[in-house]
Amino acid sequence: MSRQRRHQQKNLQKKMAAKTNPNPVLTTAPTLAPTPSLTVYVDTNILLDDLYKRRTDSRQVLRYLRTQKIPTVSSLLAYLEILTQVQMTKYINNKLAQGIQINQIYSNRHKRDLTPTELTDLWNLLYQEYELTYKDFITFVDLKPDGWQRVFEMARDTNIEAADCIHVGTALDAKCNVFITLDDFLDKELSKLDLQKIGMFTCSPQLFLDTFVSPPTPTS
Predict the structure, then answer these.
(1) Could you tell me if residue 175 is left (phi over 0), alpha (psi between -120 and 50 degrees) or otherwise beta?
(2) Which CATH number covers residue 163?
(3) Distance of CA 185 to the CA centre of its chain
(4) Distance in Å from the first CA to the final CA of the chain
(5) Which of 14, 62, 134, 181 suits a disulfide with 138, CB 3.0-4.6 Å?
């Protein structure tokens, strides 16, 4: 483990411990075991990693959340973003099969021409994946009406894109205390908001694994 990752891990451990105990006495970095008090928000990129069998750390996180029955939340927006990605992948593959150059495909990607049958098949495939893989441990929720005010303020006051503002607002509405994302820019921007004050911490999949799944044994 790199020095930077160890530093990030210790910081996250200390912040989570401080949230649990407002006046902690820390002689060493605490080893935190998963507890029912954890409520985790998973960003869309984590789910896409699992769907496309990409990054191992993202898939390990989801497997761990499922087997440990840790409350896990994502947004209905994530479901739509995944559907869009699946449709885009199908469109690109169709065009590549027709011999069209990749730069031309991307320049026209906003003009997808999937057939009704293809769209229906993709929807059914995604729904089946949800039923088989995610339904039993991920709750997909909508943003509450009161949460939109926070989202608009975030969009107004930060460089965070609108969709990501919705994700963060949804996580806060759901009272999640860990927000897992692969988006380094989002993580950086969220650090400026000091969300720790209201009890939500952002981290990468690997940092989550290092902190909660395989933390090092504290030295005496």
Answers:
(1) left
(2) 3.40.50.1010
(3) 13
(4) 20
(5) 134
Residue with tokens 């909660």: 212
Question: Does 89 reside within a domain?
Answer: yes
Per the structure, how many domains does the chain have? 1
Global confidence as pTM: 0.80
Quote the crossing angle between the two packed helices 56-67 and 44-51, to the nearest 10°. 100
Question: How far apart (Å, rounded) are the C-alpha atoms in residues 169 and 9?
Answer: 25
Q: How far apart are CA 15 and CA 53, in angstroms?
A: 31
d(CA 46, CA 150): 24
Residue pair 210/19 in contact (Cβ under 8 Å)? The answer is: no
* Two tokens, residue 202: 């952002």
Alpha-carbon distance values, 180 to 43, 110, 114, 127, 146 (Å): 6, 29, 32, 23, 23
Q: What pLDDT does residue 8 have?
A: 54
pLDDT, tens digit, 9 for 90 and up, residues 85-96: 999 999 999 999
Residues 170 and 147 sit within 8 Å (Cβ to Cβ):
yes
Domain that holds residue 77: 35-213
As a 3-state breakdown, the chain gives helix, strand, coil percent values, each rounded to 5, of: 60, 10, 30
Tokens 């908001």 appear where?
193
pLDDT digits (tens, 9 = 90+) for 188-219: 888 888 776 778 899 999 999 999 887 655 55
pLDDT digits (tens, 9 = 90+) for 9-18: 555 655 555 4
